[in-house]
Amino acid sequence: xxxxxxxxxxSPVTRRTTLxxxxxxGLSAFVPALSAxxxxxxDKRPELRIAVQMNPVSQEPVDAASNVAFRNNYSxxxxxxxxxxxxxxxxxxxxxxxxxxxxxxVLEMKLRPGVIFHDGREMTAEDVAFxxxxxxxxxxxxxxxxxxxxxxxxxxxxxxxxxLTVRFVTKFQDPIFLQRLASYAAVVISKDAWQKNGGNWTxxxxxxxxxxxxxVESYTxxxxxxxxxxxxxxxxxxxxxxxxxxIVPEVSSRIAGLLAGDYDIAxxxxxxxxxxxxxxxxHEIVGGPVPNNRILFFxxxxxxxxxxxxRQALILSIDRQAIVDTIWNGRTKVPNGLQFELxxxxxxxxxxxxxxDPDQAMQLLKDAGYNGEEIEVRSQNNYYTAENPVTQAVVAxxxxxxxxxxxxxxESGKLFDNSPTRATGNWSSTGQIPDPYISFFTQFSAAGSxxxxxxxxxxxxxxxxxxxxxxxxxxxxxxxxxxxxxxxEWEDPGVTVLHQNAVFFGVRKGIxxxxxxxxxMDLGAGSLAFEEQKS
Length: 535
Prior knowledge:
The protein is of the alpha+beta class. The chain folds into 3 domains: 78-197, Dipeptide-binding Protein, Domain 1 (Dipeptide-binding Protein, domain 1), CATH 3.90.76; 214-288 and 502-530, D-Maltodextrin-Binding Protein, domain 2, CATH 3.40.190; 291-501, Dipeptide-binding Protein, domain 3 (Roll), CATH 3.10.105.10. Helices cover 29% and strands 22% of the residues. It is built from 18 helices and 18 strands. The strands form 4 sheets. Strands 8-9-10-1-11-16-12-15-13-14 form a 10-stranded mixed sheet, with helices on both faces. It is globular. 52% of the residues are buried. Residues 91-436 form the Solute-binding protein family domain.
């Protein structure tokens, strides 16, 4: 998932970026780094250097939903509740330690005492209420309002009961409200720091004040994000004094820098390059599949794709298993539809797998009267792991059934830009919580980027999603989800899955770290250690 403007989930432009990116870039050189503490030189902890393919332009979760934002923000912020990412993705305590439903629409939560923000203040119920309040989230002119529309539509308001007790009041009985409070955007920020910032969103989004194990020391556009250890983090003192996430766009350069000792970790390595790292005695590969599906979007307003049979033909002519077996060396899989097993009772085990039927594809093209119109496939030059070779394979498969397909490179953030040639392009969809409502519906609904960029919208799909939001019984939710999948993946195709994503890291030996089965990088206490620190 890359970032996108307003309400989508996957193209490297963040909400409000259109107006603010230029200002942010100009101001980045003037965003002051936090002053080094008096005992910084005496701090003998190592610094961790990570080579990444890209950094988010915002470190504020309500402003960024993307693969790279998930990775960074997990170190900067803490959410109200958390997901057991090393287990079954169930909800567990975090900033809130316990909760009780006072009524079907009133959730009372006890907060963890002694949580210290990056500014040294202790978290109270006032910070929680503010984080989910009108100034930051609920009002239409609030910076987080697009995130409210995708993640928190059931929320009415938050009440302060006492310094360590809050009540979340919802508009209706919400079967996934606890999961919402464990989603990436359900973070608590320092109300005092926000107010002292004076409403300057450009500077706040680059250096927000959260409660995570690291605080933003500096942000340099198109270069790096530097995080300093937050030793008062409630999870404990981080093993690294500082973490630098440096942008190294080319895979070969990330690997070369890793092997040369310039970096300790290199992210997003493609399967065909893993052996280069494992051939080094001083390095290893970690990682694997994550709950993210690589997809293509379809612009049904493009004249060549207006007839759904053309889009259906494109779906049928992709040999997904061949892509997994050859380009991914069998290290991931083809899911049965745009879904994830972590959905639990909503997961459709019997949903049909994707068919590969080039003969039927050619017949559909003939029936639709396709006459060789060019179909452009947009690729963001390996923003996604192995994006370019996968795109080339898809183009070849489409050409094999008579489609005039052409691959076109676009800059990060230009994936959805409107033009007469916009037809289809690379994207992704992440299973953010163990339910398809946020992870699936809101990405493709009227609140999502396909509608915002006038690419795809379907009133029946939106109606089904609205029904799902208030449906409590899991079996009924699963039936609605089945209808929604069939609609967007076949009846009126808006997207199609290529394969499940996987993330591989090259790691210097001596660093003890195992990635989560997700985009988030857990670098906090207990998850990261340096062998050389042992004595």
